[in-house]
Write a structure and sequence with these properties.
alpha/beta
């Protein structure tokens, strides 16, 4: 929306080491982001500061060093590992004579490359437009307000005002379409709730191995690669669990530290799968030295989208890269699973994960023994239709003795429907 240099594939990376944790970023993560975007890293400039500079974000001396490095290495773009203000971007571009991008713009570019579905493309466009709207100020200073006179009269707007108006209109249009998508998703969730089908949502830091685990559990064949944000569009598949039956497994976009708020807002419809889930599988790359910080960042985003109250089962992934670590289940004092150690890539520990999932979702199940008289054949038909019978046999008196397992909500609803005859036939032990 304003005249800027063209962006190329040869990039200079700029990383500033701040003393406070709020502005700290990881240089290795920036290099992975740049690689995921398909950009060639030709040089790195590092600096240390107590706080960002107003004009260049870095000091004037370091800004001159960046400009010299760009000229020496014939770079096309400078990528900062931090969020820049519009004025800082313009000042740096004027100094370096090339395109300057910040961390948010880089992540948005990766998302734009990864989006495949119509919904995903709309969400990315919405985030990009919101980000761009803050960068329109003084973007068209070379165009003055339109003059009056014959043949020259116009709407009286500057080009900047026209762009703002068009931008607001496009944002509203995308928001309305995304609201329709959100209503469709809500209908799907309501139907699953009515059918009492539990939903398990995969969450975790980007590149933790969520899609690989998803493929291992479902044979879905979704795109999985050793790069950041390989998955963007959500995928849902059915899985079968012993003693639970069908469950829905959802693969979602990965989180990252300082995830742009525009992205969180734009992906509200997608992230709602996480909010409404019965259980979250928090996938953690335990081979990453910074896994503790990554876990904290994911929990921070979950809190931001109001999903921090959903029960979690931590998946300690990539144990094949660790020495002397075997697949296992860690339990709390009450014996409930809290962590599963596995390797999604090698398929090690998948059986333990299914066992843990069964135990976590089975807590809503009830197990009862019934003694049903031969005269009440309707109950027998109903229980067979629900496919909830574990064992059955007939007593010497001709009564039907049966063991059933079902969701507690199903039991109470069925008991009410049958005038509480299920409770009447319960076998007292």
């Amino acid at each position: 929306m304003f005249e800027r240099y063209e962006s190329g594939e040869q990039a200079i990376l700029v990383h500033v080491d701040f003393s406070d944790d709020q502005n700290k970023e990881d240089l290795n993560e920036l290099q992975m982001l740049v690689s995921s975007a398909g950009v060639n890293n030709v040089g790195i400039v590092t600096a240390a500061r107590g706080a960002p500079s107003v004009k260049y974000f870095v000091g004037s001396g370091k800004a001159e060093e960046i400009a010299h490095t760009v000229a020496a290495l014939a770079a096309d773009v400078v990528i900062f590992n931090h969020a820049l203000t519009p004025s800082q971007e313009r000042n740096l571009e004027k100094l370096c004579c090339c395109r300057v991008l910040d961390r948010t713009s880089l992540i948005l570019d990766i998302f734009a490359q990864r989006a495949r579905t119509h919904e995903g493309k709309m969400q990315v466009e919405l985030a990009q437009l919101r980000h761009l709207s803050t960068r329109l100020i003084r973007g068209w200073t070379h165009l003055e307000r339109q003059k009056g006179g014959i043949g020259l009269r116009g709407p009286g707007e500057t080009q900047l005002e026209t762009d703002r108006r068009l931008l607001r209109g496009r944002i509203k249009s995308i928001q309305k379409r995304l609201e329709r998508v959100q209503k469709q998703r809500e209908q799907g969730r309501r139907s699953r709730k009515r059918a009492e089908i539990p939903t398990v949502s995969l969450v975790g830091y980007t590149n933790a191995g969520k899609s690989t685990l998803f493929n291992t559990l479902t044979d879905a064949g979704v795109y999985a690669a050793d790069q950041l944000f390989a998955t963007l569009d959500p995928t849902l598949r059915k899985i079968e669990l012993a003693e639970v039956g069908q469950a829905i497994l959802a693969d979602t976009v990965g989180f990252i530290r300082h995830l742009p708020h525009d992205l969180v807002a734009a992906f509200k419809a997608t992230l709602q799968e996480t909010q409404e889930a019965t259980l979250l599988l928090h996938v953690v790359d335990y081979a990453d030295e910074q896994y503790r910080e990554n876990v904290d960042q994911v929990n921070e985003v979950l809190s931001e989208i109001d999903a921090d109250e959903v029960p979690q089962l931590v998946i300690c992934n990539k144990i094949d890269r660790l020495e002397s670590v075997r697949p296992k289940i860690d339990r709390d004092e009450e014996g409930r699973p809290i962590r599963v150690w596995l390797s999604a890539q090698k398929g090690e520990g998948i059986d333990l994960l299914k066992l843990a999932l069964t135990e976590c979702l089975r807590k809503e199940m009830v197990h009862h023994k019934l003694v049903v008289p031969a005269s009440d054949g309707k109950i027998r038909n109903v229980l067979f239709e629900l496919n909830c019978i574990n064992q059955e046999h007939y007593s010497e008196q001709g009564d039907w003795e049966v063991e059933v397992s079902m969701l507690a909500s199903d039991w109470h609803r069925l008991d009410k429907k049958l005038d509480e005859r299920l409770t009447q036939y319960l076998q007292v032990t």
